[in-house]
Amino acid sequence: xxxxxxxxxxxQVRDGLGELTWEVRSVNHRYLETVVRLPEELRAIEPAVxxxxxxxxxxGKVECNLRFRPAPDVAGKLRINESLVKQLVEASxxxxxxxxxxxxxxxxxxMRWPGVLETEEADYTPVEKAALExxxxxxxxxVTTREREGARLADLIRQRLAALRVQVQKARERMPQVVxxxxxxxxxxxxxxxxxxxxxxxxxxMVILAQRLDVDEEMDRLATHIDEAERVLxxxxxxxxxxxxxxxxxxxEANTLGSKSxxxxxxxxxxxxxxxxxxxxxxxxxxE
Length: 288
Description:
Elements: E1 7-15, E2 18-27, E3 32-37, H1 46-56, E4 60-70, E5 78-80, H2 82-99, H3 107-111, E6 117-119, H4 125-193, H5 199-213, H6 216-232, H7 240-260, H8 264-284
Parallel strand pairs: 3-4
Antiparallel strand pairs: 1-2, 2-4, 5-6
Helix pairs in contact: 1-4, 4-5, 4-6, 4-8, 6-7, 7-8
């Protein structure tokens, strides 16, 4: 199954633990690169998040963002540091002897003192488990989106491969006529300037010229690369790099055809080939 590298998924779950929201986005990248952003309370699950992404995706830059809104019962409860409060009250009473005042600190004053109110450490293990389960759902959605877009890209590439195959056939059919035309043109010009030209020598030159114009090998390689690209599109493995290499090879052969071109029609065929190959190359850049 061909997959696109560009996709977005969002998955949210609400339960007694609170609200967890994953947003997972992937874009083109030569390799797999994972960026993870987590709330501080859930920082411990980052290695597990990366493992899950690595197990599901082959290429692309993947951003995994998690937002967490805890339920009241999940966050750590406040408790009073009784020992510190007693020390503050006792110290206040001692100070009254020197200040000649009967005013003790208020409850609000004491609560504002650093360390008087402490937060019990919460157990986030159930939240971590729920977050990883929610990530699986988000990745399911992301993969589905990538496969759906990948199928569309594969169809576009197949259409252009079919059009490229038509151009290859046109070039094959055109070349005998091109060679014959060039040979006749060259023969006429040489006979005009040298009526006594050695016929054997002329034929040798004609053979050399025909060899220079011959593009059968290039057409064979183009056909082979087209066949291979169509085969690769059927693969279940990540194929983006392989397709990118094939696009380079197709372009190389199309350029060779253009350099050997001896008439405007063959040049036009070469140009059309390169246009089709460039269109495919742009699509291939987005395939995993």
